[in-house]
Amino acid sequence: MKTIVTLLLLIPFLGFAQIKLPEQVKKVIPTKLPSSSSVLSSNDISNGLKEALNKGIEKQVTKLTAEDGFYKNELVKILLPEELQKVDKTLRKLGLSSLAEEGILMLNRAAEDAVKEATPIFVDAVKNISFTDAKNILMGNESAATNYLQTSTTTALYAKFNPIILNSFAKVGADKIWASIIKKYNSIPLVSKVNPDLTDYTTNKALEGVFKMIAVEEKEIRTNLNSRSSSLLKKVFAAQDKK
After folding, report:
1. Which of 55, 56, 117, 208 could form a disulfide with 214 if both were Cys (CB 3.0 to 4.6 A apart)?
2. Model's pTM, two decimal places?
């Protein structure tokens, strides 16, 4: 022990390059000091989660704004509500399959157009979100941050998104197509008349589709190291990898 203490005192004068330390001495000298950058603050985690959600909007949600972004994406394609499934079947039986299919297409076209207009709404929602327990969300399931965003913002987003959907219905001609479909169906003898609120239905389905696509990217970031495109994402989600 006395030898070790003596060597430690001599180190500053001899220099590390000029002395080969005994193994006993190496064990008491730390070779690497802990880095403060490895310590995660709640602010780091919150910012990392926001960056992951924004990446979902940038990479995945923008796909929805392209033509067929909803219509040819089986994960989010908007199908008819239960009330209108009988309308669809009846029209097809009457040889009006093309009209029925056009009705479905127009719902999806309206959603594609609306998401294009509403993308800044989602960006602002992420920017303003307050994670009440960021660490638990980070350590949660593969879509925990997306689920938190959905729970925290859906009501407010619906209020902003609904009029955009209504405008998109008119813009892509969905309102006229569906007015024609409903009128034709209601004129069939002995059927129960329908009067669905397609704006409300499409708004909810479009929002649902947006959150699904954000969740796709969140899962990718959580499970694929190569998807962590910034130092913050690498730092924050590395903590999740250790759970």
Report:
1. 56
2. 0.80
